[in-house]
Automatic annotation (TrEMBL), chain A:
GO-annotated cellular components: GPI-anchor transamidase complex
Record InterPro entries: PIG-T
Keywords annotated in UniProt: Membrane, Signal, Transmembrane, Transmembrane helix
Taxonomic path: Eukaryota, Viridiplantae, Streptophyta, Embryophyta, Tracheophyta
Residues making up the signal peptide according to the UniProt record: 1-25
Protein name as annotated: GPI transamidase component PIG-T
Keyword Magnesium in annotation: no
Bilayer-crossing regions: 574-595
Keyword Membrane: yes
Gene Ontology BP, a term: attachment of GPI anchor to protein
Automatic annotation (TrEMBL), chain B:
Transmembrane regions: 17-43, 459-482, 521-539, 551-573, 585-604, 610-627, 639-661, 690-710
Keywords: Membrane, Transmembrane, Transmembrane helix
Gene Ontology cellular component list: GPI-anchor transamidase complex
Coiled-coil residues: none
InterPro entries for the chain: Gaa1
One of the protein's GO biological processes: attachment of GPI anchor to protein
Protein name: GPI transamidase component Gaa1
Organism taxonomic ancestry: Eukaryota, Viridiplantae, Streptophyta, Embryophyta, Tracheophyta
């Protein structure tokens, strides 16, 4: 049936008109992929780039099993292991909480300990969780070309109850601090993206430049509501993030406080040539931190420029201090809880750009400018104490940072004001922690545990079966300067085949997790509804719309510790073989000797020999010596029979020796 | 009879060999002692060339990156430091501030470490353990404090589990050009390492304020690094030190930069430490000279690999002349030259017989090797660290001191920059090599003696001499005891021929327990030895004591207490007359056994001490023979023996040994009576086990030998 052209158009328009509301209501039912990139200049002349890719699959019940965008591997993984939530991170380098921030959502969610960290919540009965976890580790290790399967052993993972995440349930947590992270882990991660690294923002991921950075953390976060126990059926959400801290411009400039100017092409070596066509939205954000913004405002005021805050944020992209090379498409202000002023997000839409007109955002600093980043309420460090191979202790110190205390719910001036700190620490079994030796010092004064510990969960390690686990909820006075925790341990012995390769390096104690539940990291975008369509920003805002858990607490990881244990000399088996062989030889030799010996016969032969011998002085001495050795009185030879055999023998020996020496001498010449 | 005797005499061969050796103990001990001394003299010949055992180190595999940019920056830094050091007021604090500022500008985390100087206190009850930190805190003197400046570079892609430490000591109260240039070398390395991307371990630069000696600041920093105090630090400071609080405030004022703090900055487990020192010897040489110092407390040595890489890089990459300490006075020794010539001759003969036998070394090399070996052995035996690196060894960190002396003058700018470049490149290459290391140092030797920077004697070889020395001791003890028993029983047999009613019954028990009396007297002497070891602690508390007077007091107290103990416990002189005639032999046998046990125990703690101690004790113990018997005998042999005994006893008396040794090394004119006391004081101040050895093994053995000599048989 052929309809006239106009009719078709009219019908199309009509249907469009008709279906638009329906389409909007069905937006949740579609597979979605979004890509976003957040760039943020850091106070110590580095640049943070945070890639955020989100794929969303609608619930299986309504959508079915077949997907166009959502990676099949992940879908299978979720269904096979009944995963409710999972996070896998590969990290290289350390997040510098002092200089790069410890209070913002990115540092809480994306600053991870070095190596691999994996945690997962399963939607299965309690007795099956361990089996599911083991299978999951094997699958992930195949999927990401990493030795995640080492987390299978029950000595490497633990089941934290409340110290790691407020979400209780069948949670398992494990980490491998020594896992090296490389491109072979990145490639399978990129394969999960619909455009891989061929188009869109992920095309920026030039390997040499992103692995050259000071921090590199590649994460995969899964949330699914596929199973019965979930109340809201929102399908599976796969968030892939890559957080990189890069140093623009390697050459040191003379001025220490002069921020380096950079552009996307200078830090990544590439430009953005359009979006991934499969992505629903593709945008780049540039964040100026709140402290920097307030600093800017102050400087403007000093310079006599009176500006309203609204106007300022609009014009801020080109000011006396810095300048953006491209005008932002949109400027958002986000207020956070920990400062009066708000940070600014410049948004750039990537769909405008193409291969012919590529996107290369640049930031040029015009004058020296210093600011600081928002820091966590307490700065945590962990270190080992003591020396030697027998015992030692682990100490965690917490130190106040210059934090604005107003953001806390309680009033700080009150005496009763308490700051809650949760500590989660997992220790391998060969480091035998004595939990009764836990000491807490607040402001250099020892405290009774009852006064400071609100809640405590300890599961001691069991040799070769399970690691030790300590979850502590501390209530510290708000006005503290410093606090310290020490706990003693003794070092265990491993069986020779339990030593890992390079055992002499020492053994790692994975990072402890310090969280501050009374502080929430979130940014708030006032009267800005469009944020909910941008997964990155809405994640920063941490609304319940995206994340299953409620607002995430401020979280920081401590250092990985290296404990030197006693290591055997691994060449020992060789020595053992040698000594065993010697013992065997001695035993069998003497046994055979005893068995085949005939005493009477020997006596007779000896006597005969003695009878035949000529009695010269040497032979008398020798026979005396042997007699002594045998412990018998020496008997002089009975009949001195003169024979020339002995001097003859001596002569022969001398002649042979002379010939040998002569031969040696002449052959060497 | 003939049928029974072989059956009776048939013993196990090993037992028969034992009996044979014991019955010929005299020959065996003479052979063993001569062989031991020969083995000691042959050690330089047996030394092997060093080799880098750990493959991961890969020294010199990368080109050094230190460029003239960093070096000229370091030169500028040195100029600033020199300018500050000329100022008289508060130069120490100002220099620390300047160093911190320079460190912070490089992007490092910087902190000040304030430490109080404390006298090394002898604490007899805490000899091997670390004294209670709280008690130590209370003993600090407030006015004497120093400020170390510590900078930490975090490895950009590392996990921060391990760290490499660079130490540059400088005297904040009076700095010279050499110290400034050691800071300069430190700075040039630090500025390079803050930019490189290959770091896997963190770098800690400790600019140690060495106004109280080079060891104290490093030890204080290490103590705070490993065993910090969490409680009461501020309180003690406030209680004890009112004056120093102002300085603390000054410290606070110093913290203007956000990267500089007063809070102790830490990094991971230390992998290795290098102490960089520059000395200006003002001697014109064609090359810069590098001296390596490695001995830590109680003869502990760093892993040989660390010395190897430094030596390799210094010789083959930077063209420095590398030295280790040696006794220069031994170089002219005629005896050594003679031995060297013999060795050379033997080597030549052997080589002419078989060109593959290459054990001969030239005379000069032999003498040099012996001088170095003697110095190495002596330093290990002393048990006192030869530099600040010793503090690291107490925490199981391998560390050495690199003492670089320039060939030219440090005042000439070109020469100075050239020198900084060479020194800096050496340190950079060493750091890079250690940075490559995945595991801690474990591949190579920990027990060795150096005969030159590139030659060493491992424990397997140098313990032969010691084993040969102490081998006769148990043999002689056994032979003496069995001899005494046999003579005794023969005497008794003669006696029992006369009718005697109760003689047979108590004899076996008495006979087997007869060593008890001797053991008691030897035990009493050893008990006295441990008392005497504690005495110097109390003497040192006495006011206005000069070393000489202290020494005299100590010696007189020793004698007095010895006589007192004799009175109380019953003197062997009175007892011996009543007992068996072979009493002295049993006494000697117990003495020899005690010496054997003491030497064996000491060889576990400090091998070098045991080796030198064995050289002194063993001949004395073996030769000891009652003078009375010798004089009764009045034969040539007996007189020789008596003379030998007297000389050995004189030589082995610890003060006499010390004076003889010191005189031999430095000339007898410089020897003072109080020197021995000073020497003892340093030993106990450094917690050297040698002090314990002298007090509890050597001195009692000496007294026991004297006891035997004077025995009224």
């Amino acid at each position: 049936m052929l309809l006239p052209r106009q009719t078709r158009l009219a019908l199309f328009l009509l249907s469009n008109l008709f279906f638009i509301p329906i389409a909007f209501s069905l937006v949740e039912e579609q597979e979605q992929f979004t890509e976003e990139l957040l760039l943020k200049p850091l106070p110590d002349r580095k640049v943070l780039s945070h890639f955020h890719f989100q794929s969303r699959a609608p619930p299986t019940a309504s959508y079915g099993h077949h997907h166009r965008l959502f990676p099949k591997a992940i879908y299978h993984l979720v269904h096979k292991y009944r995963i409710r939530e999972m996070e896998l991170s590969f990290t290289q380098g350390r997040w510098n909480y002092e200089r790069w921030g410890g209070f913002d959502p990115i540092s809480s969610n994306n600053a991870k300990p070095p190596g691999v960290e994996l945690w997962a919540v399963f939607d299965v009965p309690e007795h099956l969780v361990d089996a599911y976890w083991k299978n999951l580790t094997h699958t992930l290790s195949g999927l990401f070309c990493a030795s995640i399967n080492f987390l299978e052993s029950s000595t490497t993972y633990a089941a934290p109850e409340w110290g790691f995440r407020p979400f209780t349930g069948s949670l398992r947590y494990g980490s491998l601090p020594r896992e090296a992270v490389c491109t072979e882990n990145l490639t399978p991660w990129l394969k999960l993206l619909p455009c891989r690294d061929k188009a869109g923002l992920s095309a920026l991921l030039e390997r040499p430049s992103i692995y050259k950075g000071f921090y590199h953390s590649q994460q995969l976060h899964l949330t699914s509501a596929e199973f019965k126990s979930a109340e809201l059926d929102s399908g599976i959400i796969l968030e892939q993030t890559l957080t990189v801290v890069l140093q623009p411009g390697t050459k040191r400039t003379g001025l220490a406080y002069f921020q380096p100017s950079w552009s996307i092409s200078s830090i990544f070596g590439k430009q953005i040539t359009g979006k991934c066509v499969l992505a629903k939205s593709s945008s780049v954000f540039l964040q100026i931190e709140s402290d920097a913004v307030s600093e800017l405002k102050n400087l403007w005021k000093e310079n006599g420029m009176s500006v309203k805050s609204n106007e300022m944020s609009k014009n801020l992209w080109s000011n006396p201090y810095f300048e953006l090379s491209i005008a932002p498409d949109r400027v958002r202000e986000a207020s956070s809880f920990n400062s009066d002023s708000s940070s600014i997000f410049y948004e750039f839409f990537i769909q405008k750009y193409s291969r012919s007109e590529s996107f290369d955002l640049g930031l040029t600093w015009k004058s020296p400018f210093v600011w600081s980043c928002p820091k966590a309420p307490l700065h945590a460090t962990r270190f080992l104490m003591g020396s030697g191979n027998e015992r030692g202790s682990v100490a965690i110190t917490l130190r106040t940072t210059e934090l604005n205390w107003r953001l806390m719910d309680a009033d700080i001036s009150e005496e009763t004001c308490k700051l809650r700190v949760d500590i989660f620490q997992m220790v391998p079994w060969y480091v035998k922690v004595y939990y009764h030796t836990l000491l807490v010092f607040v402001d250099e004064k020892p405290q009774a545990l009852i006064d400071v510990v609100e809640r405590m969960h300890v599961s001691p390690s069991e040799d070769k079966v399970s690691p030790g686990l300590m979850e502590l909820a501390l209530k510290l006075p708000c006005r503290l300067n410093s606090a310290a925790l020490t706990i003693e341990f003794s070092k265990g012995f491993l069986h020779i085949d339990e030593y890992p390769p390079d055992a002499n390096q020492g053994f790692d104690i994975p990072s402890a997790v310090i969280s501050f539940p009374s502080f929430k990291t979130r940014l708030h975008f006032p009267n800005d509804d469009s944020v909910s369509y941008l997964p990155l920003l809405s994640k920063l805002q941490a609304s319940t719309f995206v994340c299953m858990q409620e607002r995430s607490p401020v979280l920081s990881y401590t250092e990985v510790l290296l404990v030197p244990l006693t290591t055997p000399d691994f060449s020992m088996p060789y020595n053992v073989i040698t000594i065993t062989c010697t013992v065997f030889a001695l035993y069998f030799g003497s046994l055979l000797n005893v068995l085949r010996r005939r005493v009477g016969e020997e006596e007779r032969i000896l006597k005969k020999k003695a009878a035949n011998k000529k009695t010269n002085r040497i032979s008398i001495l020798l026979s005396k010596f042997f007699a002594k050795l045998r412990g018998r009185p020496w008997e002089p030879p009975e009949s001195p029979v003169s024979s020339l055999s002995s001097p003859k023998l001596l002569l022969k020996v001398i002649v042979v020796a002379a010939v040998a020496a002569g031969w040696q001498y002449y052959s060497s010449k | 009879m003939a049928a029974i005797e072989p059956l009776k005499a048939r013993k196990r061969p090993i037992a028969r060999l034992g009996v044979f050796v014991i019955s010929h103990s005299l020959i065996v001990s003479v052979i063993c002692c001569i062989a031991a001394i020969l083995a000691l003299l042959l050690l330089p010949v047996l030394a092997k060339n060093t080799y880098i055992s750990e493959n991961a180190l890969m020294p010199g595999s990368a080109n050094t990156m230190l460029s003239s940019e960093e070096v000229s920056e370091a030169d500028r830094f040195m100029k600033d430091v020199n300018a500050l050091s000329l100022e008289s007021v508060d130069a120490g604090i100002k220099i620390a501030k300047l160093i911190a500022q320079y460190m912070a500008d490089l992007g490092a985390e910087v902190c000040y470490h304030k430490f109080h100087h404390q006298q090394n206190q002898f604490n007899p009850l805490h000899f091997f353990s670390i004294p209670d930190p709280v008690v130590v805190q209370r003993n600090i003197s407030c006015l004497s404090f120093g400020v170390n400046t510590v900078g930490v570079i975090r490895a950009p892609r590392g996990d921060g589990k391990e760290a490499i430490v660079l130490v540059t000591p400088y005297n904040s109260s009076g700095m010279d050009a050499a110290e400034a240039s050691s800071l300069g070398i430190g700075y040039s390395i630090f500025s390079l390492l803050s930019q490189v991307t290959w770091l896997a371990k963190d770098i800690i630069w400790l600019a140690a304020d060495s106004r109280f000696g080079v060891y104290a600041p490093v030890a204080a920093w290490l103590k705070d690094y490993h065993t910090p105090l969490f409680s009461g630090l501020g309180q003690v400071n406030a209680e004890v030190c009112h004056e120093s609080n102002d300085l603390l405030k000054l410290n606070d004022a110093m913290v203007s930069n956000r990267n500089i703090s007063n809070i102790f900055t830490r990094s991971g487990t230390m992998a290795a430490a290098l102490v960089i020192k520059v000395v200006d010897r003002h001697d014109e040489a064609d090359k810069d000279t590098l001296s390596i110092f490695a001995e830590a407390s109680n003869g502990q040595m760093p892993n040989l690999d660390l010395i190897n890489i430094v030596n390799y890089l210094a010789v083959h990459r930077q063209g420095l002349r590398v030295k280790v300490e040696k006794f220069f006075s031994l170089l002219d020794s005629k005896f050594l030259n003679l031995v060297g010539e013999t060795v050379e001759l033997l080597g030549k003969v052997a080589k002419s017989l078989n060109p593959n036998w290459r054990f001969g070394i030239p005379v000069a090399e032999y003498v040099e090797g012996t001088a170095t070996l003697a110095s190495s052995l002596f330093n290990q035996a002393l048990g006192v660290p030869t530099g600040p690196h010793g503090a690291f060894r107490d925490y199981q960190v391998d560390a050495i001191t690199l003492e670089i002396s320039p060939k030219g003058s440090l005042k000439n700018k070109d020469q100075r920059i050239d020198f900084l470049m060479r020194g800096g490149r050496l340190v950079e290459a060493v750091v890079r090599s250690v940075n490559n290391l995945l595991e801690k140092f474990h591949q190579s030797f920990f027990l060795y003696l150096l005969t030159s920077p590139s030659k060493f004697v491992s424990v397997g070889i140098y313990m032969i001499a010691f084993a040969l020395l102490i081998a006769p001791l148990p043999i002689v003890a056994a032979s003496l005891y069995s001899d005494a028993n046999r003579r005794d029983s023969s005497l008794r047999n003669e006696g029992s021929s006369q009718p005697h009613v109760f003689a047979d019954e108590p004899t076996p028990t008495l006979k087997s327990w007869r060593w008890l009396h001797a053991a008691k007297s030897v035990f009493i002497i050893h008990f006295w030895g441990s008392l005497v070891t504690l005495l110097p602690h109390f003497i040192s508390k006495m006011p206005n004591g000069t070393p000489t007077s202290s020494l005299i007091i100590w010696l007189s107290l020793c004698t007095l207490s010895l006589f007192l103990l004799y009175m109380i416990s019953g003197s062997p002189f009175s007892h011996a007359t009543a007992s068996q005639p072979q009493e002295w032999a049993v006494l000697k046998s117990v003495t020899v056994s005690a010496a054997f046990i003491g030497l064996c125990l000491m060889s576990v703690i400090n091998f070098a001490t045991a080796e030198i101690g064995a050289l002194l004790i063993v001949p004395m113990c073996l030769v000891a023979y009652p003078l009375k018997l010798d004089l009764q005998d009045w034969s040539f042999r007996a007189l020789i023996r008596a003379a030998c005994n007297l000389t050995l006893v004189l030589i082995s008396f610890p003060p006499a040994t010390f004076y003889l040794f010191k005189g031999g090394i430095e000339g007898f004119k410089s020897v003072n009576a109080g020197d021995f006391w000073n020497w003892l004081e340093t030993l106990w101040a450094w917690n050297s086990a040698t002090y314990l050895y002298i007090g509890m093994v050597h001195l009692p053995c000496w007294v026991s030998c004297v006891n035997i000599l004077l025995h009224p048989c």
